């Protein structure tokens, strides 16, 4: 089961981080950037969050390739912390419905860490 969860998280966060890093999907990029700006964060912070997400996703891919649980723990831990940060900002500045994806990724990350 952990391989399925790791795969789902890796795919989701490679997609999400690639938009934050490269801005290749204009509508999603602009939506995410507007969230960051509303939170008092700039484009550089969005880029750093994208790097953290990509690192977590790559660690999960290493876990899938090697079955070394250290990679699972580190990757899921990074993604869980990122999701926790997203929840904080969504609950502080947005509607609770904006926090649903971050809540789901936090839950999945916790399943891999525990």
Secondary structure elements and pairings:
Blueprint: H1 2-22, H2 26-38, H3 43-66, H4 69-93, H5 100-113
Helix pairs in contact: 1-3, 1-5, 3-4, 4-5
Q: Would you write up a description of this structure?
A:
The chain has 114 residues and is mainly α. Helices cover 85% and strands 0% of the residues. The chain has five helices and no strands. It has helices at residues 2-22, 26-38, 43-66, 69-93, 100-113. Helix 4 runs antiparallel to helix 5. It is globular. It starts with a helix and ends with a helix.
Class by SSE composition: mainly alpha
Largest sheet properties: none
| DSSP helical segment count | 5
Beta-strand portion reads under 5%
In sequence order, what are the helices and strands, one letter per element? HHHHH
Distance between the termini: 13 Å
Parts with pLDDT < 50 across at least 5 consecutive residues: none
Short summary:
The chain is an all-alpha fold and 114 residues long.
What brief labels describe this structure?
single chain; 114 residues; mainly alpha
